[in-house]
Amino acid sequence: MDYIVSTLDNLLHQTAFLSLTPGNYLMIAVACVFLYLAIAHDFEPLLLVPIAFGMLLVNIYPDIMAAPTETAAGGLLHYFFQLDEWAILPSLIFMGVGAMTDFGPLIANPMSFLLGAAAQFGIFAAYFGAIALGFNGKAAAAISIIGGADGPTSIFLCSKLGQTELLGPIAVAAYSYMSLVPIIQPPIMKLFTTDKERRIKMEQLRPVSKLEKILFPIVVTIVVCMILPTTAPLVGMLMLGNLFRECGVVRQLTETASNAMMYIVVILLGTSVGATTSAEAFLNVTTLKIVALGLIAFAFGTLAGILFGKLMCAATGGKINPLIGSAGVSAVPMAARVSQKVGAEYDPTNFLLMHAMGPNVAGVIGTAVAAGVFMAVFGIV
C-alpha cells in the first residue's frame, strides 16, 4: 500500500499542475488565442501555428528551453534557439523569400524604392521613442526594427547588437505584427486616404526582361553590401535566392530554397521564438514597452508609406494610388495583399497587387539596410 501511495505521489509531482504559475496559465491562454486566430481565421498560420505551439510548450515544460550544463544536455528548443542567436535561421529565411518572390514589379517601377524607404520612418521613430523610455542605444535599435514588420531582421539585429535578453519579446512582437497586418493596416489606410484616392487605377507595369531580372540581384548585392558590408548575410541571401529563381539554370536549388528548406526553417524558427515567451521572461514591464513600441513603429511605418504615396500621387497627377504605400513595410507578401484587398473594397475592378509588390520588396531591402545602418552606428562588424 505504501508503494502505491508513494508511486501515485511521485506521479502527481511529475505533472505540470503543481509547478505552473498564474503567469504560465495566462501565456497558455494567449497561445490558444494565437492558435485560434491562425486556424479559424487564417492569420498567417505558417507563422502563428509554430510560434503559438512553442509558447504552449515552454509554459507547460520550461526545461524544453533549458541551457546545457556539465551534467545534462539542454532542452530541445534551446538548440533551435541557438540557430536564431547565431543569425543562421533569419539569413536562410531571406534566401527562401528571395527564391519565392518576383522582383519584377520593383524593377518595372523604381519609384517603389521611395515608398519602401518612406515606410522605414517608423523604425527611426520607434528608436527615439525607445530612448525616451529609458532603453540604451543598442536595445532601442533592436526594438525599433519591429516597425519594419520583419521578424528575421529583428532577430538578426537583436543578436548582432548583443541584446539576446530582449530577443524573445522582440521576435514575438515582430512576428505577431506581421501576422496581424490585415487587422492593423486597413484602419490607418482608410483614415488617411480619400475615397477618390482609393479608387485610383494604376497603369499596367512594363514587361521586365530576363536579363534585368538576372542583373538586379547581382547589382543590388554589390551596391548595398559595398556600402553596408554588415548587411551581407541578409541582403546577400535574399538576392542569392532571387538569383536562383531568375537565372533559370538551378531549378532544383530554387525549389529547395522556396519549399523544403523554407518550411523547415519556419518550423525551427517559429517554435524557438515561441519558446522564448515563458511567463517569467515575458510578463514584465519591459516586454509591455517593447510590444507597445513595436505597434507604434509599425503604425508609423504604415502611415509614412501612405503619406509618401499621397505625395507621389499629387506629383504624378493622380497616377499613383496611395494605398500601395502601406506595402512599404517588409511583410511580404501580406502587406501587398492588404493593399489589393482595401482597393478592391472600393472598386472590385482595381488590381493593385503587382503595383504594391514593388514597395513591398523595397521594404524588405530597406529594413535590412536600416539594420545595417544601426550596426554601422554601433561599430558592429
Uncertain stretches of 5 or more adjacent residues: none
Number of strands: 0
Sheet with the most strands? none
Query: What's the assembly state of these chains?
Result: single chain
Beta-strand percentage range? under 5%
Tell me the overall shape. Answer: globular
What is the rounded distance between the termini? 66 Å
- Count of helix runs: 20
- Output the structural class: mainly alpha
List the helices and strands and how they pair.
Blueprint: H1 2-14, H2 22-40, H3 45-60, H4 76-85, H5 88-100, H6 104-108, H7 112-118, H8 121-132, H9 137-144, H10 151-160, H11 167-179, H12 181-191, H13 195-198, H14 210-227, H15 232-247, H16 251-274, H17 279-282, H18 285-315, H19 334-346, H20 353-377
Helix pairs in contact: 2-3, 3-11, 3-16, 4-16, 5-10, 5-15, 5-16, 7-18, 7-20, 8-9, 8-18, 9-10, 10-11, 10-20, 11-18, 12-18, 12-19, 14-15, 15-16, 19-20
Describe the protein's architecture and organization.
- The protein is an all-alpha fold.
- It has 20 helices and no strands.
- It has helices at residues 2-14, 22-40, 45-60, 76-85, 88-100, 104-108, 112-118, 121-132, 137-144, 151-160, 167-179, 181-191, 195-198, 210-227, 232-247, 251-274, 279-282, 285-315, 334-346, 353-377.
- The longest helix has 31 residues, at 285-315.
- It is globular.
- The chain starts with a helix and ends with a helix.
